[in-house]
Protein: alpha-1,2-Mannosidase
Amino acid sequence: MGPGGHFKDNVPYRAIKQWKKLPPRFPVKTVHVLPTELPLPGSVPRVQAAAREETPAARKERLARRDAVRESFLHSWNGYKKHAWMHDEVGPVSGEPADPFGGWAATLVDALDTLWIMGLTDEFEEAVKACEGIDFSRTSAELVNIFETTIRYLGGFLAAYELSGKKYPVLLRKAVQVADLVMCAFDTPTHLPVARWDWRQYTGGMTQAAHPRTLVAEVGSLSLELTKLTQLTGDQQYYDAVKRISDQFEKSQPHTSLPGMWPVFVDPSTWPMGFKSHDYTLGGMSDSLYEYFPKQYLLLGGVLAQPRRLYEGFIDVAKRHLLRRAANPDNIPISFFVDAHVSAPGAWNTDVSSNNHAQHLTCFTGGMVGLAAKVFERHEDLEIAAQLTDGCVWAYNATATGLGPETFAFIPCGEEVRKGDDCAWSQDRWATALWKQWRTARYDTGEKPNWEELQKILDERHFPKGMVNVDDHRYILRPEAIESVFIMYRITGEQSWADKAWTMFAAVEAATRTNIAAASIADVLVKEASAGTTQQKDSMESFWLAETLKYFYLVFETPDVVSLDEWVLNTEAHPLRRADAPWPAS
Ligand code: DMJ
Structure:
């Protein structure tokens, strides 16, 4: 039954204007419940470094930086308010509103916790009041993206509700409304969700099933928000829904074609869930599946071993097959997680090939590995966390704009992260890698670099030293790089991370600020666009205010503000608030 047709009871598809919760077609028989044990004090190791002394001059500088970030936030927030209030997004160049996420004011809801963290109480209260008017029973979307709805709306309400001390009950009410919608997508024969939910089909009474080719992140990263909602409401249906999913991940972990990890495409239309494809990445389409494991462990106060097993079961496999160091002109020790493909899967002849592609989306891995190194006491991984984070900082610093590209290819130089290594920079090494990347495109299959051709490639494409290709030149205001810098700063307390953050912020501000808000950038490799064009594109996703500026701001706050020993960023509070948190406020 496609759009335009009729359902069984002759209700035309288009005539259905709002979704309606129906009695479950596939009732859940046995409900998984939250672990009941209380976390023992001290059972989860500390994440943040001990407090450091701050000189008056250092404090002055920090506060000036913090206020600059706050001013940037207010600039974009006011632009959204003036031009696109209650819409999902504002066009930062045109001022035109846009509604790509259901039309439920995604920017407003997603940014609530940042408003609170920045102490913008009047703005926060105005926004909370506006939330009362959001009608989640109607939508402008044909299909509802369940993952995006969960992270932006449900996560937005829950984070704001808890950070503001549960003093605004409307936030929890709205969270439940969003979750009611999300739960409709779980009413399938497998109890696994339809990732792009056809609300008209559901309301028309049709049987629905998960899609056999679903992105693993879209089914695997609903756990934090739904678990938190059960913690807050006591209603076990939310936790039940995600525990079924994590059990499937655990059962399948040793049996995929790259045992330990899960492929980009999975099949939740079958039971057990299918994991039969062979492409693996920590980047787009898979990223938050992996990111959520250590955070879920923290959210449950360390009493459930499953998220730890899932993390520990995958990370060494990812280190072995996907982690690559990268040569760069300053010989900074840096690494990236790349993509892998398994051919000829099987116990005896598995062949894993990997590429040399880095993505901005994988930049969260520095923070994930760092957080997990502390929480799971994997101290040797701290060096990898630093190298992953420095890889993304390097990618920013290497370009003409000071912004990291969406994706690029680098010079890989070894399969393990080692010190005193074989990764030293040379012009020849760069030329050889460039030539390997480009020679067939130029119909020249010679093994040795052709210097004349190489010069032409560089003149046309502006690759910075150390990059051998840039597939996607954009910077779309993403948060992953600064998220990792922020976590590394809180873990180590080293000032160098705050200074790196400031350099990144200055570049982001210089390139993205518009009269209205902040714009995505079309090409980070060139400072000025060619005549008659502009680098600034008319798009500002909600994560700019909800994530990117929040991390920048928190770098320049005292470490007791959203301490990682109390909170699971960027959604919910840790159930066990610690009275003896380090780094007291100055
Ligand atoms: C973020 O909104 C989320 O954190 C998500 O998990 C992946 N990427 C986007 C922004 O880049």
